[in-house]
Specification:
Blueprint (H helix, E strand, L loop, with lengths): L1 E2 L3 H5 L8 E4 L11 H17 L4 E7 L11 H16 L3 E6 L1 E3 L8 H10 L3 E5 L3 E2 L1 E3 H11 L6 E5 L5 E2 H12 L4 E5 L11 H6 L5 H12 L1
Parallel strand pairs: 1-2, 2-3, 3-4, 4-9, 5-8, 6-11
Antiparallel strand pairs: 7-10
Length: 222
């Protein structure tokens, strides 16, 4: 059973099952500040669980919880509260903290979509030299859950390819695929946060180099 209509929900259709409730609905904009938006998702989550307590509950949170610069963000605070509610009130659950998703469509303001658009239209943008980002192919979510969902009991897992890509690496891969040159000015700013990955994630991505993973993303989604 899938709750939601967005990018993650669509990617889960090939593993939909009556045994599991994939809660992929809710606030997608990490800059959201309206309490009504958060309350609406929270209410839907509680109601859905009450109606389907027999199913394993899978929730999609965010790796931004580890970002110390975003600890006062309403979005991060809300995601933490949802995680606590699930841990304290749902008997059978799995929470995936997701990195920067890369897929077809989705939010145009995600890092990959933003860079792809700027390069395609030859728009100038600022490149933060110190920034690093964790990326995740949207298809990896369903692939991972298909083989691990039922076997992992009541756990929160950090989920992305376990490598911090710097922005020049990402831009270079997009330039190579599009054969277009990015127009940017370099700024000596930016940050990133460290994430520890479970053995399940390290094993899932084992044998794949960062270069090959990034090349696969650009080949599939440019």
């Amino acid at each position: 059973m899938i709750i939601g209509t967005g990018l993650i929900a669509h990617a889960l259709k090939n593993i939909d099952t009556n045994d599991t409730l994939f809660f992929a609905s809710g606030v997608s904009n990490s800059l959201e500040t309206r309490s009504s938006e958060f309350e609406r998702e929270f209410s839907l989550l509680k109601t859905t669980h009450e109606q389907h307590k027999e199913k394993k509950f899978v929730y999609f949170s965010t790796l931004s919880i580890h970002d110390q610069s975003k600890q006062k963000s309403p979005y991060v605070i809300y995601k933490k509260n949802i995680e606590e509610y699930i841990k304290n009130n749902i008997e059978n659950y799995l929470i995936l903290r997701i990195g920067n998703i890369v897929g077809k469509g989705g939010n145009p303001n995600t890092l990959f979509n933003f860079l792809k658009t700027q390069i395609a239209h030859k728009n100038e943008f600022a490149l933060h030299l110190k920034a690093r980002r964790l990326l995740l192919d949207i298809e990896d979510i369903s692939t991972f859950l298909a083989s691990h969902c039922q076997s992992i009991p009541n756990k929160i897992i950090n989920f992305s390819f376990p490598y911090n890509f710097d922005l020049k690496e990402i831009i270079g891969a997009i330039e190579k695929e599009t054969r277009k040159k990015a127009c940017y000015s370099e700024v000596n700013e930016g940050d990133f946060y460290k994430v520890d990955f479970e053995e399940e994630i390290l094993s899932f991505f084992s044998g794949i180099s960062p270069e090959n993973y990034l090349e696969s993303l650009t080949r599939k989604y440019i």
